[in-house]
Amino acid sequence: MADQLPLVPAASAPSGTVIINRRCSLHREGEQRVLVVAGLPVHHYDAQDAVAEAYAMVLLLDGGHATQVEVSRAFGCCDRTLRRHQERYAEGGMEALARRVGWAPGRRRIARPRLHEIRRMKDEGKSNREIARRLGVTEKAIRKQVGPDAMAPQQELSLFPTMSACEPCGSSPEADAAVVEDGAPVIATGTEPGTPPGLDPLDRTWDRLMACAGLLDDAVPVFADAETVPGAGVLFALPALVASGVFGIAGRLYRGIGPAFYGLRTTLLVLLLMALWRIGRPETLKERDPQTLGRVLGLDRAPEVKTLRRKLTRLAGLHQAERLGQELARLRVQHRGRLMGFLYVDGHVRVYHGKRCLPKAHVARMRLSLPATTDYWVNDAAGDPLFVVTAPANAGLVKMLPPLLRQAREIVGERRVTIVFDRGGWSPRLFAQLIAEGFDILTYWKGRCHAVPPALFVRREAVIEGRNVVYHLNDQPVEFLGGKLRLRRVTRLGEDGHQTPIVTSRTDLSDIEVAWRMFERWRQENFFKYMRQEFLLDALCDYRVEPDDPTRTVPNPARRDMDRQIAAARAEVTRLEQEYGAAAINNPERKRPTMRGFKIAHGKIGKALRAARQRQRELEQQRRALPQRVPVRDIRTEAVVKLATERKHLTDLAKMLAFQAESDLLALIGPHYARADQEGRTLLHELFHADASIRVETDTLHVTLAPLSAPHRTLAVQAVCQALNDTATLFPGTSLRLHLAVAPLPSSSMAFPGPRPAPQAAPDPDRPDSPAQG
Questions:
Q1: Which residue of 319, 396, 457, 557 pairs with 472 in a disulfide if CB–CB is 3.0 to 4.6 A?
Q2: Between 264-276 and 246-254, two packed helices, what is the crossing angle to 10 degrees?
Q3: Cβ atoms within 10 A of the Cβ of 367, count?
Q4: Strands, E, within 584-663: which ranges?
Q5: pLDDT by residue (tens digit) across 643-659?
Q6: Which of 461, 534, 456 shows the shortest CA–CA distance to 489?
């Protein structure tokens, strides 16, 4: 058959055409390529599309149109490449052709700073085994690096002093190679001792040139002595941020974001400080002076909007945000395990006002259903966040609780955990499932409930966590699922007579503690309110969308239309029945004593009533024939998409860590500040924006805070400086130990040597600074 096909002589081939064989040719015109087989175009692609070109080779080979020698000669590749393309396409189709295996181009086998560290320790006479132990690698890996051929290309690094203290994640080589010990990641906090010599803190041009040349992974912070640096008070939160483990954990997960002046460590630090400065989104950086912010970072200027957005995109492309959140939560549990006995779960709806077609969710604070995404947060007993998960297609709490609790079990371990949630998670079958998995539940009763006689309520009074609690309660057992599930119902009687029933599986707690734990759910509500107002939790930081599952089922909109028609038909039947009944009441019996005469006289109404009833029955039959749920692709003409979640998850984690740092500082300031429960976070807000002087002495970074707006606030911050300095925190990326202090107050301001005690105030659930914030 091949001999009968028309030949394509090379002499007659137009310019730009590659003859593959007698049947096939490849036509080139600019950047466009057309593969022709037997005179018919079978494949068209762009020259820059490597996947499409690989598919063209596979198409020729698998179809038997050309041999490997002919295809390799026409496309300029070897036979081995063709066989590899065929194997990948057979295993995974086009996606496998796009996925590159092996070492990524341009990626170094080992970071240059690590090679420099290996060389330094080798020059000090340390053995390969000792170097391997310090770096957390095998001895074989060190032998490969210390050979003369392996180390020769790195001799030029000695010309660049900045490389000696630059690590991709702001950690020392030992901390960068940290492992998990007893479930706790080792936290990286600094680099090897020694500040790089010869660097001008206000002119980092040479470092930027090195980054452009691919010789710098992250600019090392270098500080210059300065007075009244705006916003430098935020460094008081640095010990809490470093203790969270974010720099060490992120360094192990991301390993770096390529050669750059603003590397992984700097990007994370900028995101965290932005949250504490209340810079809710990257676009707001336009309103800040980059040189001023850079002074706090130890750089000549802070990254601006486009740079930060590019860094976020690079981090999002690695898809490690979920693992980062899990590792941070696991370390948080180890530090605050006593607060993990009760976990509060609730969903936060983030309204979307863009042009994309997204699923709708009910926004309780607006009492509307709007396009939105739903994030489910898990908070500890103090109201501080533990981790967050984005729900697919706004799934309800009943559907999201099992995967959330599986993740919580991996984080908190085998300890006893009570899950507290609202009525959105009401499902007796779900309760039985969670109890069987080892969880206890605590939630509000949903639906109708028989009122308890007021005489059966008992006044309970107790002091819980230093607060006087008084409730009128009734405690009794209840059964569900035909007696298979036995729970406990505690009902609270309010001052207005309203009864609030609570259901729990905890039989070992007193009734007043059950009620108090349930009502403490307002801490999480206050957390959402505080995060929306202060941290712009609902800010849209990513305009990208991702393909959504087109087979996902949604309520059939045709049934909603049919419900409206049935409701209109029932209303018409009711109207006619009322009219027919009124006519029967007003019927003159002397004139029409029989029912037959009445029907004849009002035949028009009777006929219309029978027709309306028949239409109602037909509509109900049509609705029964419609499926309750249909795939979303069947009801949408546009593409089925969802908002990209990776960058949003990263920024949410930064804001969560900033909130946790505030909570840790608030716990330190509380004993020294009488109104810490009411004004504690307001004080911290002022602290983070306060001016401070920066001074460097050998291996110490001195940060001296200017006096705050009131003497009692200044004294409260001064009282916690020693506790913060005792942590011996190193500024990320340096060997500088942080030393915090407060400038002395003028003598006229020392009327009171310390804060005066104040009576405990009742919590206000509508105030973000209330005790509900922890």
A1: 457
A2: 140
A3: 7
A4: 629-631, 641-643
A5: 888 999 999 999 999 99
A6: 456
